[in-house]
């Protein structure tokens, strides 16, 4: 069914735009996003993947392969460590699927699941970077100065973009009438 819907164009285009915007917003707003001692990371790709799961409306988007592809691009372009995002993005999609089975879909449950996804993603990312010696920030400082601002920024993204993305998916999943 995915092949026959508008989602075959909307989803990959939105994913590419989110990949582009994550890097661009971090560059353009660097003085705001990375003001000592705080740092916040824009995670629009995770937002797109999570909301895509919630809004696919019976049309099964191949989220895992797209998440792997987005992870490879993010690894090459953003992090420089091949394999981190390539593994984390599909894991976040799987976590979203697992958590969504336990809750009735609504705005509040969706934002709660997105919150959990962000915490898991950012924390595993932190642990991986501290394991290989890229960062030496203590866990308490990470929670206060990196995770909290990242959560705040991305929850604002969620609240602002939830209904426009929902409308886009509603349009993309309706059948074409000619």
Automatic annotation (TrEMBL):
GO terms for cellular component: plasma membrane. Keywords: Cell membrane, Cell shape, Membrane, Transmembrane, Transmembrane helix. GO terms for biological process: regulation of cell shape. It is a multi-pass membrane protein. InterPro entries: Cell_shape_determining_MreD. It is found in: Cell membrane. Pfam families: MreD. The chain crosses the membrane at residues 67-95, 107-129, 141-165. Belongs to the MreD family. This is Rod shape-determining protein MreD. It comes from Limosilactobacillus oris PB013-T2-3.
């Amino acid at each position: 069914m995915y092949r026959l819907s508008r989602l075959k164009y909307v989803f990959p285009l939105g994913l590419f735009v989110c990949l582009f915007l994550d890097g661009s917003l971090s560059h353009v707003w660097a003085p705001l996003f990375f003001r000592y001692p705080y740092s916040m990371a824009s995670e629009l790709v995770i937002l797109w993947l999570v909301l895509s799961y919630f809004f696919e409306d019976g049309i099964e988007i191949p989220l895992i392969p797209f998440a792997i592809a987005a992870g490879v691009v993010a690894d090459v372009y953003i992090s420089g460590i091949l394999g981190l995002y390539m593994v984390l993005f599909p894991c976040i999609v799987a976590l979203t699927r697992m958590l969504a089975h336990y809750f009735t879909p609504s705005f509040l449950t969706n934002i709660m699941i997105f919150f959990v996804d962000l915490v898991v993603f950012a924390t595993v990312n932190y642990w991986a970077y501290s394991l290989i010696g890229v960062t030496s920030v203590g866990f308490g400082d990470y929670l206060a100065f990196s995770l909290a601002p990242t959560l705040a920024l991305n929850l604002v993204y969620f609240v602002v973009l939830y209904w426009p993305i929902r409308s886009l998916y509603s349009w993309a999943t309706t059948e074409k009438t000619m």
